[in-house]
Amino acid sequence: MRAGTAGQVVRYTLLVLLGLLFLSPLVFMVVTSFKTRGDAGGIPPSWIPDPFSTQAYESILTARGTPVLRWFANSLVAALANSALVVGTAAMAAYALARMEFRGRGLVFGAIIATLFVPPVILIIPNYLVVGELGWLNTLAAVIVPTAASAFGVFFLRQFFLSIPAELEEAARLDGANAWQIFLRVLLPLSRPALATLALLALLTNWNDFLWPVYVLFSPEMQTLPAGLSTLQSANAVRYDLLMAGAVIASVPVLVLFAFLQRFIIEGVSRSGLKG
Fold first, then answer.
1. How is 33-67 classified by DSSP, letter by letter?
2. What confidence tens digit (pLDDT) does each residue in 218-231 have?
């Protein structure tokens, strides 16, 4: 009993220390954002703002050359729209590959999975040419549509759909439901954890994307938050208080979403690996 108790104490102590290690950069980011300009660049760095100041947030939110609120709104619209498109396209493709019998199904699924091995940076030039031909340059459509088809989303939802008993669909089919009705009224309601997980992953990917928006968004008012904050960093290389304030603004929505969707994420990831 004593050996078991001692082992649990050691285990939880290590977990607490590991948690503090991962949280320390986030805590230091928040603390630094509430420091004055001089205190933020002080050596050695301090963990307590002295004095406590909101000057960095006031500066970054009111400066004319850094429309952070506009960048935030652009990122939010682009991430939500892209997430909805990713979930919609991936769900329909995954349902067809998981439940429908047709010639070449395995080949199609293999081709989709093969695209996961293609580095995204290779597609920048072709995507740029397509977006330019469509007249979407310097518009939010350029950062919403090109990544709407997600190979990972198809694979992830297909694995989840395979874990749902086929008897439920057969019962619905006996009641007169067609394939579309089964998809909407049976599969999707049962797949809420997986859909929420994929939606959050797609939102995070679009929200944190830096390279692609830099190529296709030109005017300052059309920038997304990561691309906009990069200009802030180049213009204020030593203003750590401003940089940390911008990082906090970019992090808050992600942390809030994860806090609300954590239960669905854990369930979706765990159930997606039950059946291959």
1. HTS-HHHHT-SS--SS-SS---HHHHHHHH-TT--
2. 888 888 888 888 77
